[in-house]
Design goal:
alpha+beta, 5-stranded antiparallel sheet, 12 strands, 46% helix, membrane, UPF0353/GerABKA_families
Protein backbone atom coordinates (compact mmCIF):
# COMPACT_ATOMS: atom_id res chain seq x y z
CA UNK A 1 0.00 0.00 0.00
CA UNK A 2 2.83 2.36 0.90
CA UNK A 3 4.64 1.62 -2.36
CA UNK A 4 1.49 2.46 -4.32
CA UNK A 5 1.08 5.81 -2.56
CA UNK A 6 4.75 6.60 -3.12
CA UNK A 7 4.36 5.79 -6.81
CA UNK A 8 1.28 8.02 -7.09
CA UNK A 9 3.06 10.86 -5.31
CA UNK A 10 6.02 10.48 -7.64
CA UNK A 11 3.72 10.56 -10.68
CA UNK A 12 2.04 13.67 -9.31
CA UNK A 13 5.38 15.39 -8.74
CA UNK A 14 6.46 14.52 -12.29
CA UNK A 15 3.18 15.89 -13.59
CA UNK A 16 3.71 19.19 -11.75
CA UNK A 17 7.29 19.43 -12.97
CA UNK A 18 6.05 18.99 -16.53
CA UNK A 19 3.54 21.82 -16.08
CA UNK A 20 6.22 24.08 -14.63
CA UNK A 21 8.04 23.98 -17.96
CA UNK A 22 5.44 26.53 -19.13
CA UNK A 23 6.58 30.04 -18.21
CA UNK A 24 3.02 31.15 -17.43
CA UNK A 25 2.44 28.28 -14.98
CA UNK A 26 2.86 29.60 -11.45
CA UNK A 27 2.93 27.76 -8.14
CA UNK A 28 2.96 28.77 -4.49
CA UNK A 29 2.84 27.11 -1.09
CA UNK A 30 0.70 27.67 2.02
CA UNK A 31 1.97 26.04 5.22
CA UNK A 32 -0.38 25.01 7.99
CA UNK A 33 0.41 23.26 11.25
CA UNK A 34 -1.14 20.00 10.06
CA UNK A 35 0.22 19.96 6.47
CA UNK A 36 1.52 21.98 3.56
CA UNK A 37 -0.67 22.88 0.57
CA UNK A 38 0.62 23.61 -2.93
CA UNK A 39 -1.23 25.84 -5.40
CA UNK A 40 -0.73 25.67 -9.17
CA UNK A 41 -2.33 27.70 -11.97
CA UNK A 42 -1.78 29.21 -15.39
CA UNK A 43 -1.27 32.91 -14.72
CA UNK A 44 -2.50 34.01 -18.16
CA UNK A 45 -6.03 32.55 -17.92
CA UNK A 46 -7.13 33.10 -14.30
CA UNK A 47 -8.70 36.16 -12.71
CA UNK A 48 -6.00 37.29 -10.31
CA UNK A 49 -8.37 39.44 -8.26
CA UNK A 50 -10.77 36.54 -7.73
CA UNK A 51 -7.82 34.26 -6.94
CA UNK A 52 -6.56 36.54 -4.19
CA UNK A 53 -10.01 37.24 -2.71
CA UNK A 54 -11.59 33.77 -2.94
CA UNK A 55 -8.60 31.49 -2.44
CA UNK A 56 -5.46 32.99 -0.98
CA UNK A 57 -7.11 35.17 1.67
CA UNK A 58 -9.22 32.27 2.99
CA UNK A 59 -6.36 29.78 2.91
CA UNK A 60 -4.10 32.08 4.94
CA UNK A 61 -6.72 33.02 7.56
CA UNK A 62 -8.88 29.89 7.96
CA UNK A 63 -8.01 26.69 9.80
CA UNK A 64 -8.31 23.37 7.96
CA UNK A 65 -6.58 20.02 7.88
CA UNK A 66 -7.44 18.53 4.49
CA UNK A 67 -8.93 19.33 1.10
CA UNK A 68 -12.45 18.37 2.17
CA UNK A 69 -12.47 21.00 4.90
CA UNK A 70 -10.92 23.55 2.56
CA UNK A 71 -13.62 22.96 -0.05
CA UNK A 72 -16.31 23.73 2.55
CA UNK A 73 -14.55 26.96 3.52
CA UNK A 74 -13.93 28.52 0.10
CA UNK A 75 -16.88 30.71 -1.07
CA UNK A 76 -17.23 29.16 -4.53
CA UNK A 77 -19.84 26.82 -6.00
CA UNK A 78 -17.47 25.55 -8.71
CA UNK A 79 -15.26 23.25 -6.67
CA UNK A 80 -14.36 19.62 -7.23
CA UNK A 81 -11.86 17.07 -5.88
CA UNK A 82 -10.26 14.57 -8.25
CA UNK A 83 -7.20 12.34 -8.71
CA UNK A 84 -7.40 12.11 -12.51
CA UNK A 85 -4.30 13.84 -13.94
CA UNK A 86 -5.91 14.32 -17.38
CA UNK A 87 -8.90 16.01 -15.80
CA UNK A 88 -6.61 18.18 -13.64
CA UNK A 89 -4.62 19.26 -16.69
CA UNK A 90 -7.76 20.04 -18.69
CA UNK A 91 -9.36 22.05 -15.88
CA UNK A 92 -6.15 24.00 -15.35
CA UNK A 93 -6.26 24.95 -19.03
CA UNK A 94 -9.89 26.00 -18.58
CA UNK A 95 -8.95 28.62 -16.00
CA UNK A 96 -9.13 26.72 -12.72
CA UNK A 97 -6.53 26.62 -9.98
CA UNK A 98 -5.30 23.32 -8.52
CA UNK A 99 -4.62 22.87 -4.79
CA UNK A 100 -2.57 19.84 -3.74
CA UNK A 101 -1.99 18.53 -0.22
CA UNK A 102 1.41 17.22 0.84
CA UNK A 103 1.68 13.43 0.53
CA UNK A 104 -1.76 13.15 -1.13
CA UNK A 105 -2.73 12.36 -4.71
CA UNK A 106 -6.02 14.26 -4.52
CA UNK A 107 -6.41 17.70 -6.03
CA UNK A 108 -8.92 20.46 -5.26
CA UNK A 109 -9.97 22.43 -8.36
CA UNK A 110 -11.45 25.92 -7.98
CA UNK A 111 -12.84 27.93 -10.90
CA UNK A 112 -11.33 31.41 -11.29
CA UNK A 113 -11.39 31.91 -15.10
CA UNK A 114 -10.51 35.21 -16.73
CA UNK A 115 -13.20 36.09 -19.29
CA UNK A 116 -11.84 38.67 -21.72
CA UNK A 117 -14.42 39.61 -24.34
CA UNK A 118 -15.60 42.61 -26.30
CA UNK A 119 -18.90 44.30 -25.61
CA UNK A 120 -22.04 43.66 -27.64
CA UNK A 121 -21.95 46.07 -30.58
CA UNK A 122 -23.97 46.90 -33.69
CA UNK A 123 -24.02 44.50 -36.68
CA UNK A 124 -21.26 45.20 -39.17
CA UNK A 125 -22.09 42.74 -41.96
CA UNK A 126 -25.91 42.77 -41.72
CA UNK A 127 -26.40 46.38 -40.69
CA UNK A 128 -29.95 47.75 -40.89
CA UNK A 129 -31.27 51.29 -40.54
CA UNK A 130 -34.37 50.15 -38.64
CA UNK A 131 -34.66 47.32 -36.14
CA UNK A 132 -32.46 46.11 -33.27
CA UNK A 133 -28.82 47.15 -33.17
CA UNK A 134 -27.32 44.17 -31.29
CA UNK A 135 -24.92 41.65 -32.82
CA UNK A 136 -23.36 38.42 -31.62
CA UNK A 137 -19.81 38.47 -30.24
CA UNK A 138 -17.12 35.80 -29.84
CA UNK A 139 -18.35 34.63 -26.40
CA UNK A 140 -20.87 31.78 -26.64
CA UNK A 141 -22.38 32.48 -23.21
CA UNK A 142 -23.17 36.05 -24.21
CA UNK A 143 -24.65 34.84 -27.50
CA UNK A 144 -26.89 32.33 -25.72
CA UNK A 145 -27.99 35.12 -23.39
CA UNK A 146 -28.98 37.29 -26.38
CA UNK A 147 -31.10 34.43 -27.73
CA UNK A 148 -32.75 33.45 -24.44
CA UNK A 149 -33.57 37.10 -23.76
CA UNK A 150 -35.65 37.11 -26.95
CA UNK A 151 -37.18 33.64 -26.48
CA UNK A 152 -37.95 33.28 -22.74
CA UNK A 153 -39.51 29.83 -22.95
CA UNK A 154 -38.48 26.62 -21.20
CA UNK A 155 -38.68 24.52 -24.36
CA UNK A 156 -35.84 26.45 -26.00
CA UNK A 157 -33.28 23.66 -25.83
CA UNK A 158 -29.48 24.08 -25.85
CA UNK A 159 -27.25 21.05 -26.47
CA UNK A 160 -23.52 21.64 -25.99
CA UNK A 161 -20.59 19.58 -27.31
CA UNK A 162 -16.81 19.93 -27.41
CA UNK A 163 -15.36 19.65 -30.92
CA UNK A 164 -11.68 19.56 -31.89
CA UNK A 165 -9.11 17.25 -30.36
CA UNK A 166 -6.78 20.20 -29.63
CA UNK A 167 -8.99 23.29 -29.30
CA UNK A 168 -11.95 21.49 -27.63
CA UNK A 169 -14.23 24.26 -28.84
CA UNK A 170 -17.71 24.49 -27.35
CA UNK A 171 -20.41 24.07 -29.99
CA UNK A 172 -24.05 24.60 -29.03
CA UNK A 173 -27.13 23.48 -30.96
CA UNK A 174 -30.22 25.59 -30.22
CA UNK A 175 -33.81 24.72 -31.14
CA UNK A 176 -37.34 25.02 -29.80
CA UNK A 177 -38.42 21.51 -28.88
CA UNK A 178 -42.12 22.02 -29.66
CA UNK A 179 -41.42 23.48 -33.12
CA UNK A 180 -38.26 21.89 -34.53
CA UNK A 181 -38.43 18.61 -36.42
CA UNK A 182 -36.67 15.89 -34.41
CA UNK A 183 -35.02 14.56 -37.58
CA UNK A 184 -33.38 17.93 -38.30
CA UNK A 185 -32.09 18.19 -34.72
CA UNK A 186 -30.79 14.62 -34.78
CA UNK A 187 -29.04 15.20 -38.11
CA UNK A 188 -27.25 18.33 -36.88
CA UNK A 189 -26.13 16.82 -33.56
CA UNK A 190 -24.96 13.58 -35.18
CA UNK A 191 -22.94 15.38 -37.87
CA UNK A 192 -21.25 17.58 -35.28
CA UNK A 193 -20.42 14.56 -33.10
CA UNK A 194 -18.93 12.80 -36.13
CA UNK A 195 -16.46 15.64 -36.78
CA UNK A 196 -12.89 14.42 -36.37
CA UNK A 197 -10.53 17.39 -36.60
CA UNK A 198 -7.91 18.99 -34.38
CA UNK A 199 -9.21 22.57 -34.39
CA UNK A 200 -12.46 24.52 -34.66
CA UNK A 201 -11.84 28.28 -34.54
CA UNK A 202 -14.98 29.60 -36.24
CA UNK A 203 -18.48 28.55 -37.28
CA UNK A 204 -17.24 28.46 -40.90
CA UNK A 205 -15.36 25.26 -40.03
CA UNK A 206 -18.59 23.62 -38.86
CA UNK A 207 -20.41 24.86 -41.95
CA UNK A 208 -17.89 23.22 -44.28
CA UNK A 209 -17.71 19.97 -42.31
CA UNK A 210 -21.43 19.23 -41.93
CA UNK A 211 -22.76 20.53 -45.27
CA UNK A 212 -24.56 18.01 -47.46
CA UNK A 213 -22.28 18.68 -50.44
CA UNK A 214 -18.86 19.98 -49.44
CA UNK A 215 -17.85 20.34 -53.13
CA UNK A 216 -20.58 22.86 -53.91
CA UNK A 217 -19.69 26.55 -54.15
CA UNK A 218 -23.11 27.39 -52.69
CA UNK A 219 -23.31 27.68 -48.88
CA UNK A 220 -25.92 25.24 -47.57
CA UNK A 221 -26.24 26.76 -44.11
CA UNK A 222 -27.19 30.39 -43.60
CA UNK A 223 -24.92 32.38 -41.26
CA UNK A 224 -25.97 35.52 -39.43
CA UNK A 225 -24.66 37.89 -36.75
CA UNK A 226 -28.13 39.10 -35.72
CA UNK A 227 -29.79 37.68 -32.57
CA UNK A 228 -33.20 38.88 -33.78
CA UNK A 229 -32.87 36.80 -36.94
CA UNK A 230 -31.92 33.72 -34.91
CA UNK A 231 -34.93 34.23 -32.64
CA UNK A 232 -37.16 34.49 -35.72
CA UNK A 233 -35.91 31.32 -37.43
CA UNK A 234 -36.02 29.32 -34.18
CA UNK A 235 -39.71 30.13 -33.83
CA UNK A 236 -40.17 28.90 -37.40
CA UNK A 237 -38.81 25.50 -36.35
CA UNK A 238 -35.23 25.73 -37.63
CA UNK A 239 -32.00 24.80 -35.86
CA UNK A 240 -29.17 27.19 -34.90
CA UNK A 241 -25.51 26.28 -34.36
CA UNK A 242 -23.33 28.48 -32.14
CA UNK A 243 -19.55 28.15 -31.89
CA UNK A 244 -17.49 29.62 -29.06
CA UNK A 245 -15.11 32.18 -30.55
CA UNK A 246 -17.32 33.00 -33.53
CA UNK A 247 -19.67 36.01 -33.86
CA UNK A 248 -21.66 34.24 -36.59
CA UNK A 249 -24.40 31.65 -35.96
CA UNK A 250 -25.42 29.01 -38.51
CA UNK A 251 -29.03 28.30 -39.48
CA UNK A 252 -30.42 25.15 -41.06
CA UNK A 253 -32.19 23.88 -43.00
CA UNK A 254 -32.20 26.81 -45.39
CA UNK A 255 -33.12 27.59 -49.00
CA UNK A 256 -31.53 29.56 -51.84
CA UNK A 257 -34.14 32.33 -51.61
CA UNK A 258 -33.26 33.06 -47.97
CA UNK A 259 -29.76 34.15 -48.98
CA UNK A 260 -31.27 37.08 -50.87
CA UNK A 261 -33.69 38.09 -48.11
CA UNK A 262 -32.40 40.76 -45.75
CA UNK A 263 -33.88 40.58 -42.26
CA UNK A 264 -34.59 44.30 -42.56
CA UNK A 265 -37.37 43.32 -45.00
CA UNK A 266 -39.53 42.38 -42.00
CA UNK A 267 -39.16 45.85 -40.46
CA UNK A 268 -40.55 47.59 -43.54
CA UNK A 269 -43.98 47.79 -45.12
CA UNK A 270 -44.65 44.57 -47.04
CA UNK A 271 -44.99 46.41 -50.38
CA UNK A 272 -41.67 48.23 -49.97
CA UNK A 273 -39.96 45.08 -48.69
CA UNK A 274 -41.24 43.00 -51.61
CA UNK A 275 -40.03 45.54 -54.18
CA UNK A 276 -36.58 45.68 -52.57
CA UNK A 277 -36.39 41.90 -52.51
CA UNK A 278 -37.27 41.63 -56.22
CA UNK A 279 -34.72 44.35 -57.03
CA UNK A 280 -32.14 42.31 -55.15
CA UNK A 281 -32.95 39.14 -57.09
CA UNK A 282 -32.86 41.02 -60.40
CA UNK A 283 -29.54 42.65 -59.49
CA UNK A 284 -27.91 39.30 -58.71
CA UNK A 285 -29.14 37.76 -61.96
CA UNK A 286 -28.00 40.85 -63.87
CA UNK A 287 -24.58 40.67 -62.19
CA UNK A 288 -24.03 37.09 -63.34
CA UNK A 289 -25.30 37.38 -66.91
CA UNK A 290 -24.64 40.92 -68.17
CA UNK A 291 -20.94 40.50 -69.05
CA UNK A 292 -21.41 37.01 -70.60
CA UNK A 293 -24.23 38.44 -72.74
CA UNK A 294 -21.89 41.19 -73.95
CA UNK A 295 -19.22 38.64 -74.90
CA UNK A 296 -21.72 36.26 -76.54
CA UNK A 297 -23.38 38.94 -78.66
CA UNK A 298 -20.18 40.60 -79.85
CA UNK A 299 -18.50 37.26 -80.58
CA UNK A 300 -21.31 35.21 -82.16
CA UNK A 301 -24.55 37.22 -82.45
CA UNK A 302 -23.55 40.75 -83.46
CA UNK A 303 -26.26 40.67 -86.14
CA UNK A 304 -28.97 41.05 -83.45
CA UNK A 305 -27.55 44.39 -82.27
CA UNK A 306 -29.81 47.31 -83.33
CA UNK A 307 -28.26 49.66 -85.90
CA UNK A 308 -28.60 52.63 -83.57
CA UNK A 309 -26.51 50.82 -80.94
CA UNK A 310 -24.10 49.19 -83.39
CA UNK A 311 -22.39 52.47 -84.24
CA UNK A 312 -21.77 53.19 -80.56
CA UNK A 313 -20.25 49.76 -79.97
CA UNK A 314 -18.04 50.01 -83.07
CA UNK A 315 -16.69 53.41 -82.06
CA UNK A 316 -16.05 52.27 -78.47
CA UNK A 317 -14.14 49.19 -79.65
CA UNK A 318 -12.35 50.81 -82.58
CA UNK A 319 -9.02 51.09 -80.72
CA UNK A 320 -9.31 47.90 -78.62
CA UNK A 321 -6.84 45.23 -79.87
CA UNK A 322 -8.31 42.36 -77.84
CA UNK A 323 -11.29 40.08 -78.53
CA UNK A 324 -14.36 40.61 -76.27
CA UNK A 325 -13.54 37.66 -73.97
CA UNK A 326 -10.02 38.91 -73.18
CA UNK A 327 -11.29 42.45 -72.75
CA UNK A 328 -14.00 41.25 -70.34
CA UNK A 329 -11.59 39.07 -68.35
CA UNK A 330 -9.15 41.96 -67.93
CA UNK A 331 -11.84 44.22 -66.50
CA UNK A 332 -13.46 41.51 -64.35
CA UNK A 333 -10.11 40.52 -62.85
CA UNK A 334 -9.28 44.18 -62.26
CA UNK A 335 -12.54 44.64 -60.35
CA UNK A 336 -11.83 41.52 -58.28
CA UNK A 337 -8.29 42.72 -57.52
CA UNK A 338 -9.59 46.09 -56.35
CA UNK A 339 -12.29 44.44 -54.26
CA UNK A 340 -9.86 42.00 -52.65
CA UNK A 341 -7.28 44.71 -51.99
CA UNK A 342 -9.93 46.94 -50.41
CA UNK A 343 -11.11 44.10 -48.17
CA UNK A 344 -7.62 43.14 -46.91
CA UNK A 345 -6.25 46.63 -46.27
CA UNK A 346 -7.14 48.73 -43.20
CA UNK A 347 -10.59 50.29 -43.46
CA UNK A 348 -9.66 53.85 -44.42
CA UNK A 349 -6.93 52.78 -46.84
CA UNK A 350 -9.20 50.11 -48.34
CA UNK A 351 -11.96 52.63 -49.08
CA UNK A 352 -9.44 54.89 -50.82
CA UNK A 353 -8.07 52.03 -52.91
CA UNK A 354 -11.56 50.91 -53.94
CA UNK A 355 -12.83 54.32 -55.05
CA UNK A 356 -9.71 56.02 -56.39
CA UNK A 357 -8.27 52.81 -57.86
CA UNK A 358 -11.49 52.04 -59.73
CA UNK A 359 -11.72 55.54 -61.21
CA UNK A 360 -8.05 55.80 -62.16
CA UNK A 361 -7.62 52.31 -63.60
CA UNK A 362 -10.98 52.40 -65.43
CA UNK A 363 -10.30 55.79 -67.03
CA UNK A 364 -6.71 54.88 -67.91
CA UNK A 365 -7.67 51.55 -69.52
CA UNK A 366 -10.26 53.25 -71.74
CA UNK A 367 -7.89 56.04 -72.76
CA UNK A 368 -5.12 53.51 -73.47
CA UNK A 369 -7.45 51.55 -75.75
CA UNK A 370 -7.27 48.33 -73.70
CA UNK A 371 -11.01 48.21 -73.01
CA UNK A 372 -14.12 49.91 -74.33
CA UNK A 373 -16.08 52.41 -72.28
CA UNK A 374 -19.30 50.43 -72.88
CA UNK A 375 -17.84 47.30 -71.28
CA UNK A 376 -16.45 49.37 -68.41
CA UNK A 377 -19.98 50.57 -67.61
CA UNK A 378 -21.36 47.02 -67.92
CA UNK A 379 -18.73 45.51 -65.60
CA UNK A 380 -19.22 48.30 -63.05
CA UNK A 381 -22.99 47.74 -63.03
CA UNK A 382 -22.43 44.00 -62.66
CA UNK A 383 -20.15 44.60 -59.66
CA UNK A 384 -22.77 46.86 -58.08
CA UNK A 385 -25.40 44.17 -58.61
CA UNK A 386 -23.31 41.59 -56.75
CA UNK A 387 -23.04 43.94 -53.76
CA UNK A 388 -26.79 43.72 -53.16
CA UNK A 389 -26.51 40.16 -51.81
CA UNK A 390 -27.24 40.39 -48.05
CA UNK A 391 -25.17 37.30 -47.13
CA UNK A 392 -21.43 37.72 -47.71
CA UNK A 393 -20.67 34.05 -48.41
CA UNK A 394 -23.31 33.90 -51.13
CA UNK A 395 -21.88 37.14 -52.53
CA UNK A 396 -18.54 35.37 -53.01
CA UNK A 397 -20.28 32.58 -54.92
CA UNK A 398 -22.02 35.10 -57.19
CA UNK A 399 -18.69 36.80 -57.90
CA UNK A 400 -17.09 33.56 -59.09
CA UNK A 401 -20.06 32.34 -61.13
CA UNK A 402 -19.48 35.00 -63.79
CA UNK A 403 -16.23 33.42 -64.99
CA UNK A 404 -17.59 30.02 -66.18
CA UNK A 405 -20.48 31.87 -67.83
CA UNK A 406 -17.95 34.08 -69.63
CA UNK A 407 -16.03 31.07 -70.97
CA UNK A 408 -19.20 29.31 -72.14
CA UNK A 409 -20.40 32.55 -73.78
CA UNK A 410 -17.10 32.90 -75.67
CA UNK A 411 -17.16 29.33 -76.99
CA UNK A 412 -20.86 28.84 -77.83
CA UNK A 413 -22.48 32.25 -77.47
CA UNK A 414 -26.04 32.39 -76.12
CA UNK A 415 -26.25 28.61 -76.40
CA UNK A 416 -23.25 28.35 -74.10
CA UNK A 417 -24.93 30.63 -71.54
CA UNK A 418 -28.01 28.39 -71.70
CA UNK A 419 -25.88 25.24 -71.23
CA UNK A 420 -24.09 26.78 -68.25
CA UNK A 421 -27.41 27.91 -66.77
CA UNK A 422 -28.80 24.38 -67.14
CA UNK A 423 -25.74 22.94 -65.40
CA UNK A 424 -26.18 25.37 -62.48
CA UNK A 425 -29.90 24.58 -62.24
CA UNK A 426 -29.28 20.82 -62.22
CA UNK A 427 -26.71 21.30 -59.47
CA UNK A 428 -29.16 23.41 -57.43
CA UNK A 429 -31.96 20.88 -57.97
CA UNK A 430 -29.74 18.14 -56.51
CA UNK A 431 -28.50 20.28 -53.63
CA UNK A 432 -29.97 19.87 -50.14
CA UNK A 433 -29.63 21.55 -46.77
CA UNK A 434 -29.72 19.03 -43.91
CA UNK A 435 -31.46 16.69 -46.32
CA UNK A 436 -34.14 19.26 -47.29
CA UNK A 437 -34.51 20.65 -50.87
CA UNK A 438 -32.35 23.73 -51.40
CA UNK A 439 -34.64 25.18 -54.11
CA UNK A 440 -37.84 25.01 -52.07
CA UNK A 441 -40.47 26.45 -52.68
CA UNK A 442 -39.65 26.37 -56.41
CA UNK A 443 -38.68 22.69 -56.33
CA UNK A 444 -40.58 20.93 -55.02
CA UNK A 445 -43.21 23.55 -55.78
CA UNK A 446 -45.01 24.65 -52.64
CA UNK A 447 -47.44 27.45 -53.29
CA UNK A 448 -48.01 28.20 -49.59
CA UNK A 449 -44.31 28.94 -49.02
CA UNK A 450 -44.23 31.55 -51.81
CA UNK A 451 -45.77 34.03 -49.35
CA UNK A 452 -42.26 34.74 -48.03
CA UNK A 453 -40.00 33.86 -50.94
CA UNK A 454 -39.68 36.24 -53.89
CA UNK A 455 -42.07 38.68 -52.22
CA UNK A 456 -43.07 39.18 -48.60
CA UNK A 457 -46.79 39.20 -48.00
CA UNK A 458 -48.31 40.85 -44.90
CA UNK A 459 -47.93 39.01 -41.60
CA UNK A 460 -51.62 38.12 -41.55
CA UNK A 461 -51.01 35.76 -44.49
CA UNK A 462 -48.08 34.03 -42.80
CA UNK A 463 -50.00 32.03 -40.22
CA UNK A 464 -48.26 28.79 -41.27
CA UNK A 465 -44.61 27.92 -40.69
CA UNK A 466 -42.52 26.93 -43.74
CA UNK A 467 -43.17 23.39 -44.98
CA UNK A 468 -39.43 22.80 -45.53
CA UNK A 469 -38.70 22.57 -41.78
CA UNK A 470 -41.45 19.96 -41.23
CA UNK A 471 -42.29 21.52 -37.90
CA UNK A 472 -44.36 19.77 -35.26
CA UNK A 473 -46.66 22.79 -34.96
CA UNK A 474 -47.28 24.19 -38.46
CA UNK A 475 -49.72 26.90 -37.30
CA UNK A 476 -48.14 30.08 -35.95
CA UNK A 477 -51.37 31.88 -35.11
CA UNK A 478 -55.05 31.84 -36.00
CA UNK A 479 -55.90 34.21 -38.82
CA UNK A 480 -58.90 35.73 -37.05
CA UNK A 481 -56.59 36.78 -34.21
CA UNK A 482 -54.12 38.58 -36.48
CA UNK A 483 -54.25 42.27 -37.27
CA UNK A 484 -55.73 43.22 -40.60
Amino acid sequence: MGNRENQQNEELNNFLEQLKQNDDFKSSQVNKEEASFYIGYFNSIIDKKVFQELVMSYMKQATFTDLEELSSILPSNQIQITEDKKEIEQELLNGKIAIFMEESTECLLVATPLNEKRQVSIPEVEFSVVGPKEAFIEDIETNLNLIRKRIPVSHLMIKEMNVGSVTKTTVAVAYIEDFADAENVKTVIQRIKDIDIDQIVDSSFIQQLISDDTNSPFPQLLDTERPDRIASVLTEGKVAILVDGSPHVLIGPTTLVEFFSAFEDYFLNWIVASIFRMIRLFAVTFSILVTPFYVAILTHHFDIIPESLLATLISSRAQVPFPPILEALILELTIELLREAGARLPTKVGQTIGIVGGIVIGTASVEAGLTSNVLLIIVALGALGSFTTPVYKMSNTIRLMRFPFLLFAHVWGLVGITICMCYVMVHLLRLTSLGRPFLEPVFPFRFKDLKDAFIRLPFRYQKKRPLEVRTNQPTRFEEENSKR
